[in-house]
Write a structure and sequence with these properties.
Shape: elongated
Structural class: alpha/beta
Distance between the termini: 30 Å
Number of strands: 11
Strand order of the largest sheet: 2-4-1-5-6
Helix content: 25-40%
Mean pLDDT: 96
Number of helices: 9
Number of domains: 2
Low-confidence stretches: none
Order of helices and strands: EEHEEEHHHEHEEHHEHHEE
Length: about 230
C-alpha cells in the first residue's frame, strides 16, 4: 500500500505495519523467517497513492485542487452527459468535504476515476501529532484492506487482500503457481489456530474449512493452498 502525506512531519519511506496477530503467530510457531507487511509513505504524491493522510489545516488545499479540476472540465465540456455528476461533486467539494465521503455508486466511481480527483481516495485528516501506525490502520479501513496469514516452521507471512477477496485471489498473492494449479484452500480462523498446537491439530479437531476458488477469506484467517501444477 502507498500512503501520501501532506503537511505532516513524517519521514517518507517504508514503514512496517505493527501487526499484533503476526507477532502472536511468530511467538507460537517460532518460524525461521518472518515476513511482515510494509507500507510506502510518500509526500504529496496523490496520483500513485492508495490513501492520503493530510493535516487538518492542509485539507482545503487538497480540495481546492479537485475543485479546479471540476471547474475546468465543466468549462470545456458543455454538452457532456457527465456534467450533472461533476457539478454535484463540485458542490460537495465547496462544502469542504472530500469526495470519498460523497455517496457514489460503482458506475459513478468508475466515471470519476479518469478525472484524477485526489479526494476520491480515502482521506485521513490528522489533528495534532501524527501517529504513523494509526494512519496505517485508518488507511487499511478506508481501502477495505484485510490480512490473511501463512504460518509454518519455515515462515510466517502477512498477506494483504481486500474484504471479500476469494481464495483464488489469495493463492495468487502467495504465488502465481498456487493460483494456476488451485485445487482447494484449507482455512482456519486466527483464534482457532492459536488455540491448537498447529495446523494439523486444527484439522484433527474439525476446525479447518475447505474452500473452493470463489469462497472468500476473512480477516486474520490462516490459509494453506492445495494445488497441482
Amino acid at each position: 500500500m502507498k500512503i501520501s502525506i501532506s503537511g505532516l512531519d513524517i519521514e517518507p519511506g517504508k514503514v512496517k505495519h505493527e501487526d499484533p496477530r503476526l507477532s502472536q503467530l511468530v511467538d507460537k510457531v517460532q518460524p525461521k523467517k518472518v515476513s511482515p507487511y510494509y507500507v510506502e509513505i510518500m509526500e504529496d504524491e496523490f496520483v500513485q497513492a492508495d490513501a492520503i493522510a493530510v493535516a487538518e489545516d492542509k485539507l482545503l488545499d487538497l480540495l481546492i485542487h479537485d475543485m479546479e479540476k471540476c471547474e475546468t472540465w465543466l468549462q470545456r465540456n458543455p454538452e457532456s452527459a457527465d456534467r450533472e455528476l461533476i457539478g454535484k461533486c463540485l458542490e460537495w467539494l465547496e462544502q469542504e468535504k472530500p469526495l470519498s465521503q460523497y455517496p457514489l455508486d460503482d458506475t459513478q466511481k468508475e466515471t470519476l476515476r479518469s478525472f484524477g480527483l485526489a479526494s476520491l481516495k480515502p482521506i485521513i485528516v490528522i489533528t495534532g501529532e501524527p501517529d504513523i501506525q494509526d494512519i496505517i490502520g485508518r488507511a487499511f479501513q478506508g481501502t477495505q484492506t484485510i490480512f490473511f496469514y501463512t504460518a509454518g516452521p519455515k515462515e510466517v507471512h502477512a498477506w494483504d487482500v481486500k474484504e471479500n477477496d476469494t481464495l483464488l485471489t489469495c493463492a495468487g498473492k502467495i504465488h502465481t503457481d498456487l493460483a494456476r494449479g488451485f485445487i482447494k484452500g484449507d482455512v482456519v480462523s486466527f483464534d482457532d489456530f492459536m488455540a491448537c498446537h498447529n495446523f494439523n491439530d486444527c484439522k484433527k479437531q474439525g476446525l479447518v474449512r475447505v474452500g473452493d476458488k470463489e469462497d472468500t477469506i476473512s480477516s486474520g484467517d490462516i490459509l494453506e493452498i492445495r494445488f497441482n501444477v
